[in-house]
Design brief:
single chain, 170 residues, alpha/beta, Molybdenum Cofactor Biosythetic Enzyme, Chain A, six-stranded mixed β-sheet
Length: 170
């Protein structure tokens, strides 16, 4: 089957997601990424089932991942923040240890698109995606522009397809 045939089989059913903002400074009141993500996803008919703001601490990233994949209806978990190379950026390090299958193309494509927007600084992003416990996990940088870039160019166009692929049989 072609990718288009897979997209058609996946259909347009609502996808249930969880959102995690990894930040030492944002709060639910100041989290503009969450505000954008919730509004954008719900405008497309999807459901945000859970939301967390956590500090960029490995134990908090790990706990959020494990808690959210344990919610049966959550199909996709979106992490934003903590994907850079500073000492405080630990999201990639924690999440990459748990991914059972990786989607290297997500990070590659994200950095390619980012390079067109911001130049060589795009190489510092450790954006990644994969599957853990039949749940799609996506880790993107925490800047507003990076979240919108990842969502509009990569995640939204394939969201139903991603959610369908990880649970389909045969």
């Amino acid at each position: 089957m072609s990718a288009e045939e897979h997209r058609q089989k996946a259909g347009q059913k609502p996808v249930t997601l969880a959102i995690v903002t990894v930040s030492d400074t944002r709060t639910p009141e100041t989290d503009t990424n969450y505000m954008y993500l919730e509004e954008r996803l719900e405008s497309l008919g999807h459901k945000v089932e859970a939301y967390r703001v956590i500090q960029d601490e490995p134990d908090q990233v790990e706990a959020a991942l494990k808690d959210l994949v344990a919610i049966p209806q959550v199909q996709v978990v979106l992490f934003n923040g903590g994907t850079g190379i500073s000492p405080r950026d630990t999201t990639y390090d924690v999440i990459s240890r748990y991914l059972e299958k990786t989607l290297p193309g997500f990070g590659e494509l994200f950095r390619t698109i980012s390079y067109q927007q911001i130049g060589a600084a795009a190489m510092m992003s450790r954006a990644t995606a994969g599957v853990y416990k039949q749940t799609v996990i996506v880790c993107m940088p925490g800047s507003n522009n990076a979240v919108k870039t990842a969502m509009e160019n990569l995640i939204i166009p394939e969201l139903n397809h991603l959610a369908w692929e990880v649970v389909r049989k045969g």
